[in-house]
Amino acid sequence: MTGKIGESVRRADGEDKVRGRAIYGMDHAETNMIHARLLRSPVAAGRIVVLDITRAMSIPGVRAIITAADIPCRAGVIVKDQCLMALEYVRYAGEPIAAVAAGTEAQALAAVAAIDLEIEAWDPVLDPTTALAPNARVVHPDWASYDLGADPPVGTRGGNVAWESRLERGDVSAAFADAHLVVQDEFTVPRQHQSPIEPHCAVASITGGRYVVHTPTQAPFLVRDRIAEFLGLRASQIRVVVPTIGGGFGGKVEATLEPICALLAQRTGRPVRIANSRREELATTAPREGAMVRLRSAVGPDGDLLAQEAECLLDAGAYAGETVVIASVALLYLGATYRIPGVRHVARAVYTNTPPTGGYRGLCGPYCVFAMEQHLDHIARELELDRLELRLRNALRAGERMANGQEIDDDGMVDAIQQVRRLNAWPASGRTPQAPGDRRPMRGTGLAATRCPTHPEPTQATVKLNEDGTVGIISAAVEIGTGAVAMGARQIAAAELGVQPSDVMMLPPDTDAAGYDGGSTGSGTTFALGNAVRDAAEGVREQLFETAAEMLEVAAEDLRLADGHVVVVGSPDSRVALADVATTALWTTGPIASAGRYCPPPIVFDEACVTGTLISTMWAVSSSVHLAEVEVDEGTGKVTITRYVVTQDVGRIINARAIEGQIHGGVLQGIGYALLEELRIDDFGLPLDASLERYRLPTALDAPRIEITVLEHPCPYGPYGAKGVGEPPIVPVAAAIAAAVADAIGQPVRRLPITPFSVLETLRSARPA
Amino acid sequence: MRVAFRVNGVPVEADVGGMEPLLEILRDRFGLTGAKLGCGEGRCGACSVIVDGRTIASCLYPIVLADNQAVRTVEGLAAADGPLDPIQDALLEHGAVQCGACIPGVLMTLTALLERVAQPTEEVIRQELTGNICRCTGYHAIVDAVLDLTTTTSE
User: Fold this and answer.
1) Which of A324, A406, B44, B113 would bridge with B38, disulfide CB 3.0–4.6 Å?
2) Which of A435 and A598 is assigned the larger pLDDT?
3) What is the distance of C-alpha A245 from the center of its chain?
4) How many domains is chain B partitioned into structurally?
């Protein structure tokens, strides 16, 4: 193992994981622990007429039952619209109504069944389009009275619109009036569920008058703050500790079960465990939102985009949650890749009587890019242009500006597109046939391009030099599986301090031990933590050199770090081991340790062009181009991916194997989104796909081999130039596959997933009667 | 009723109702938390253990069926204080472990496979893995770890 940046060191937590020794959130248990289960709404909308816990309280083993009456305050990410449990009204099937803590899970379940519940059921509002119709029932009649964590301009909320974000720039009307061609499309995508192997779970206890919560969350400080908000506590009264986490993919950022669990611990005085069943997981935890995207573009004769209108409707579900923030991200994704002088983009997060949606790897990126790329292929078809050339022509270059006015840092996109050509992966004639092709079997090639943000959060890391010369890092950044902490942070500390990565140790995340961390989200962990570790290592180096300079009788400026030693520049034999410096320092300057921190820098953009955006810029933007070749079985409609190519800019490689792993995993989740996964809700608002037999996750047989080219266009403020890596691989996948399928069958793809049924339907409707 | 069986070579006994899932007994009575309750439906494979040479979904496997059988779990693949089993090592070397929650099940599926077939083809490996959902890795690193291990071993 070496300390070089870019090498594939092993993960620190790997051995525990392969021995079955790692204690995940789902494995965490405490002495005298009792168990909680939830009563959830059986209907999607209605008024609670009877909620009586008397009978349930007499079930043996029951220690406490709580309902909204116990804790009526409202909380939320931005819009404070959600009670911990349904208060008077239920707004989605599966909404918690009561929580029972009992000696065993079976006793808790028996008590849940014994709660008397009567709901006056209403017709649910099931999709955004219906929700925005003039006579639609308003899901939150009291919306205007809710507190907000941000101020929207007047008029951007109301009725079933939970939030509206807009981006307008340039003279759109004039561009449409003068356009050579106007192209319009509408796209619809379903919900996609994160489906980590480990369901949401938590254990809460009261120790020393404070709440201690062990939960496998991606964002311990966010969970801490949400518990405080729901329970009316000061944040410092809560300590969140993160055991090993069994997958998150964005689904374990917001608090879900933790506040309920904490309240039950407070009521019973016992450690309380709560865990979702797989059914609860699929039916109630926030998936990627279903959405509708309308695009209308004004185009010049050579395929230049002149102006574009976009309307995105994001199904927020019954509570605003993270989806109101995701609406802003839709504007960013639609405006980040291509030069569009006139832009009128609007995204609305819409309330419905369905389970709340939220963040999933890449957020709205996969469907924004699917829509944009199919739309571009439509333009290419109308103008008989090569699809790759059309993208190359419109791709933003370094120095140009995104739709939001933000300047482009590098030419990664041009490089990524040209890489596809260098690989000879693009057919000589990249045009899409006008009618169903006569190629048999039906084969097609498609490509999709996108620029993706890195979204680092503020973070803090303390680096200390142990007295044996090893290094310790104390940080609340969560290792969610990517290796950002288990490999990346250790490699960076090792490189900074001249030790082996195996000599860098990390304390598991604990909000009491480490400074604030905004969570392992948005491909930002290596980026934010890496920068904080470098900042801290700088301080450690200064302290080391101060002591070593005395020991070696040289000036501190003449020292450097290498192979676990402080070395005098120019005379390699004159050196002293880190362990000796550390022990000497104890009695000269005091122990060697330094705190480092990171906050992403402000990005200059055109502030006048946006209204109601909660995120307005993109940090450390990377470029990706994916290419898919498919074969479509005319008889069965089955789509087989015969070749898959990824070119992705990562800024700078920190760990080559980890990057490959992110690409493999991200692409397969994208293939699931493109071809298999659809979290459906029936006409009554009830979940149709609440088991893994119904909700089809990709298996080893669904994973085509992937040809990967990693490009390095360094980010000036990334650690060693690195950019975020984890999310980009999922973002263009559905777009690339849809493009290839459309090429194969000679018909556009407007809905996901592309199932055999949908392919057959398209083929049938295209056939002349 | 009383069932007696071996877990990772160690004889054990337990008073059980009979229909409790083997997984529950392994985790709650014997402290073997390697196998995970991922779905409880026999679909995800995170609970996979080996019973008499065959991989089974222990979340659905009634404990009574384990009577007199030899049960093997991920904890038994290598001695606690000894080196890793070659397949464990191969997964780490190939970067085939991310969140790792599926890995205890994946390892048991692969172990049972390699005991039956010394040099499985890629297709066979993938076919065997269809009972184990891995949401992180996209499976390629797992497949390559097995291919690399079995090819190297034979040389």
Assistant:
1) B44
2) A598
3) 15
4) 2
Q: Do B80 and A19 touch (CB under 8 A)?
A: yes
Indicate if B72 and B6 belong to the same structural domain: yes
- The shortest CB-CB distance from B84 to any of A13, A15, A483 is to A15
Element (H, E) at A566: strand A565-568
**Whether residues B106 and B141 fall in one domain:** yes
Q: Are residues B64 and B122 in the same domain?
A: no
**Structural tokens at position A455:** 């979204």
Element (H, E) at A742: helix A733-745
B94 lies in the same domain as B147: yes
- Distance between CA atoms of A323 and A389, rounded to whole angstroms? 35
Q: Which residues contact A314 (CB under 8 A, 6 or more apart)?
A: A128, A289, A291, A323, A326, A327, A330, A347, A348, A349, A350, A357, A364
| A661/B95 CB distance under 8 A | yes
Tell me what ipTM this predicted complex has.
0.98
* CATH label of the domain that carries residue B59: 3.10.20.30
Determine, for residues B77 and A19 on separate chains, whether the beta-carbon distance falls below 8 Å. yes
Location of structure tokens 């779990």 = B73
* pLDDT class of A725 with cuts at 50, 70, 90: very high
Q: Which among A22, A249, A697 has CB closest to B133? A: A697
Per-residue pLDDT, B105: 98
Amino acid present at A557: E
Which residue, B31, B58, B76, sits at the end of a domain?
A: B76
All residues of chain B having their beta carbon less than 8 Å from the beta carbon of residue A17 are 97, 100, 103
Radius of gyration of chain A (CA): 27
Domain with B101, as residue range(s), is 86-154
What is the structure's pLDDT at A436? Answer: 52
Residue B130 distance to chain A (closest CA, Å): 5
- By DSSP bridging, strand A593-598 and strand A342-351 are unpaired
Between positions 472 and 511 of A, the ones with CB within 8 A of B are 480-483
Instruction: Please check whether residue B81 lies inside any domain of the structure.
Output: no
Quick one: pLDDT at residue A729? 98
Q: What is the pTM of this model?
A: 0.97
**B82: closest chain A residue by CA:** A19
Question: Are B59 and B30 in the same domain?
Answer: yes
Where a domain ends, among B76, B110, B137? B76
What tokens does A326 get? 């995701």
Contacts of B95 in chain A (CB under 8 A): 8, 11, 483, 657-658, 660-661
Asked if the model's pLDDT at residue A534 lies above 80, the reply is yes
- Domains, chain A, ordered by start: 14-21+456-598 (3.30.365.10), 31-123 (3.90.1170.50), 291-455+605-766 (3.30.365.10)
Residue B11 sits in the same domain as residue B49 = yes
Distance from CA of A700 to the nearest CA of B (A): 5
Cross-chain Cβ contact B73/A20 below 8 Å = yes
Helix residue spans in A464-570 (DSSP H) = 490-497, 525-552
Residues 15-44 of A with CB under 8 A from B: 15, 17-24, 26-27
Looking at the fold, whether B72 and B91 belong to one and the same domain comes out as: no
Let me know whether B61 and B11 are in one domain.
Answer: yes
Question: Which residue from A245, A660, A692 is facing B95, i.e. has the nearest CB?
Answer: A660
Task: Report the percent of chain A where pLDDT is more than 90.
Answer: 94
User: Is the Cβ pair B97, A27 closer than 8 Å?
Assistant: no
Q: Which residue does chain A place closest to B124, by CA atoms?
A: A701
95-154 in chain B: CB under 8 A from chain A: 95-104, 107, 125-127, 129-130, 132-143
- List, for residues A388-413, the tens digit of each pLDDT value: 999 999 999 999 999 999 999 999 99
Answer yes or no: is B121 within a domain.
Answer: yes
Q: Which segments of A498-649 does DSSP mark as H helices, in order?
A: 525-552, 578-586
